[in-house]
Amino acid sequence: MRSFRLRLAAISVIMSGLVLLAFGAVSWLIFQRVGVANLDEELQNFGFRVAGRAGPNVSGPRTETNMAEVFGVESARARFFSLVVQGDRITHRTDSWPRGLDPVSFQGGVDPLDPQPELVDPPPRPAAEVEPGRPNPPPARVILEPRYYTVSAEGARYRVGVFSNGEVRIVLGADLAELGRGLHQIRRAFLIALPGALFIVALGAAFVGRRALRPIEVLSDRMENVSAEGLDQRIKVERTDLEFKRIIDAYNVMMGRLEKSFHQATRFSADASHELKTPLAVMQGTLERALAKCPDESEAQQVYSDLLEEVGNQRAILESLLLLSRADAGELKLSREEVDLSKLVETLVEDASLLAEGRGITVESEIAPGIRMEADAALLQRVLHNLFSNAVKYNRDGGQVKCALSRIGDAIEFTVANTGAPIPREEHEKIFDRFYRSGDAGNSRVEGVGLGLSLAREIVAAHGGEILVADDAGEGMTVFVVRLR
Hints:
50% helix; alpha+beta; five-stranded antiparallel β-sheet
């Protein structure tokens, strides 16, 4: 079985994970572009500073010193430049210039296919005035539009900017490893935080799912605990979400119809049983009087005897139906009194022995003395009599019936076992259904309509106990067990 809450949490985690991964990828690209843009701006500031004043005789060492002052000593180690004057002649190259890169190959401001120079528009602001007493800087020069390249050499990646004033070209670059380390730290922090975020999402989804499904859980609990006594229970809908209101309203309407139908059925069963008792009593009295007037061993006497016996059976069935209807309506009232179960069982064992004597069935008993309890003696006797009667009726000729009464802790246990045909395991619960008869019993000529065990279960349940059937594999017997507290 699948859990909706687990599926909701899984879907939330998957969707959130995809969204977070997409957000992380986009953020990483943005950080990368911003980092490259910031690096280009740093290179541009220094490149414009040099290209705006440099001429053919620009000093490479002095420019290198200025780079250290501008970027700082630590950052300058990751920077490099090369000065190229007219004629593609390299006049200076820093020691940190990467091997495998040719400064001359980088063009600045001039497209080989379109040799017209592109001037920076607007032109960069001139350098700040120097302090008094120092020589004036050379005049500012016109700067061509810079060009930027991302190149690789010997397994490393570099960002290179080319700044030119038409006479001098400064090829200025920086190692992208520093930017890569920053991006790597951001990526690692994101991947470390991602499982925690998804775990929180899963907990949140599970919490939301539980809160959202609370009305369904309440509905499930009510449906699982529906009984004849609880058909009047309804679920309130004051604070229920609109999505569940329709379901709960349908449940309440269904329970209303079920309650009405149930009460009608139980009332019909009780009324019919009650109304039929009077005509049957009249029939029984009439047959008894007619039987008393018939000659002995006459055909009429046999007919009246059979009819009288059938009327007795019908009265027993009606009495069982009346008790069952009361149990369904929760009106099976018990007249509790102190009952000596030991003596009651002993009496029923004697009656069962008389019934079994004609078929050669032996009845054995093991009854603990002095077992008493508060119970309805008449109803409890009806249960035990039914079990003994079944143990004899459904037994084989020459078989055995064994019964036992004992106290186990705070419970009383009564068992009846017989050597009749075993009841299939899949029918152990069905035999307590009304009007149900096991396959062997239904095909046999044994009298019965299938109400005895159903009524026995209701009576035992009213006493706070249980009745069940089990197989005694060791002796091949069918065992009925009654446990009472």
